[in-house]
Design brief:
79% helix; mainly alpha; single chain
Length: 215
C-alpha cells in the first residue's frame, strides 16, 4: 500500500527504493543459482543480463537525479539533513555499479555475485538514512502538491536528458513492486505511460526481463 495519497515525491522515492531493493535481491539470488546450475535456456540468460543492466541504470539514474535535482532543491528546506553524506554514499555505490558492469560485460556470474553482495551491503544502510531524511510524511510537510508535481516533472526531464532508457526503466520499477505500490507508482506517471507505452509500445523491449518480475 502507498504511504501517501496524491502526488508525493517522498512516496515515489520510497517506491523506487523498493524496486531497487528487489532488483538487487533477485539479481544476487539468480547470479548464484545460474552459476551453480547453469541457465535453463538462452532466452533466460539474455533476459537476466538485461535485468542486471537495467538495475545498474535505475540505481545510477536515481542517484544522479537526487544529486543534481532533489538534494539541491531540499537543502534549504531540510537544513539539518546530511546531504553530503548521502552523496558520498552515492559515490561508493557508483564504484560498485562499475564492478557490476565489468562483471556483466565479462559474463562472469561469480564476479557479479560478489559485486552484488557488496552492493546489497552498501545499499540498505544508505536507503535507511535517505528514507529517514525524506519520508512521505516529511515531503508532505515541506512541499505543496503543485511543488510535488513540478519536481516530478523535472525529474522525468532530467532522466530523459541523461539518456535513461524509459522502455526498460519504467517497467523495471513497476514490475519489481507489489500490486499496491505498483498502482501508486503508476499514478505518478502520465497515464499514457502505464496504460499504453508499457503494455503495448515498449513491451517487446522489456519482455525478456519478465521472468524476473513480479506478476
Amino acid at each position: 500500500m502507498s504511504e501517501q495519497q496524491g502526488p508525493n515525491i517522498g512516496a515515489s522515492l520510497l517506491h523506487i527504493h523498493r524496486a531497487i531493493s528487489r532488483g538487487i535481491a533477485v539479481s544476487r539470488e539468480k547470479s548464484q543459482a545460474f552459476a551453480e546450475a547453469g541457465y535453463p535456456d538462452e532466452a533466460t540468460a539474455a533476459g537476466f543480463w538485461t535485468y542486471v543492466q537495467t538495475l545498474e541504470s535505475v540505481t545510477h539514474g536515481h542517484h544522479l537525479t537526487e544529486d543534481d535535482l532533489f538534494f539541491p532543491y531540499l537543502r534549504d528546506r531540510l537544513p539539518g539533513a546530511d546531504f553530503d553524506g548521502l552523496m558520498g554514499d552515492h559515490q561508493t555505490i557508483a564504484a560498485i555499479l562499475d564492478e557490476i558492469g565489468a562483471a556483466r560485460e565479462a559474463g562472469s556470474l561469480q564476479d557479479l555475485h560478489q559485486a552484488l553482495t557488496k552492493l546489497e551491503a552498501a545499499w540498505h544502510p544508505h536507503r535507511g538514512k535517505e528514507e529517514a531524511t525524506f519520508s512521505p510524511q516529511v515531503a508532505a510537510e515541506i512541499m505543496t502538491p503543485p511543488e510535488h508535481i513540478e519536481l516530478g516533472q523535472q525529474a522525468a526531464a532530467h532522466s530523459q536528458e541523461h539518456g535513461v532508457p524509459a522502455p526498460l526503466i519504467v517497467p523495471f520499477v513497476l514490475f519489481n513492486l507489489e500490486p499496491g505500490d505498483r498502482a501508486a507508482m503508476s499514478a505518478a506517471y502520465p497515464p499514457e505511460i502505464p496504460n499504453h507505452l508499457v503494455p503495448v509500445v515498449w513491451k517487446d523491449q522489456w519482455a525478456p526481463m519478465k521472468p524476473f518480475f513480479l506478476d
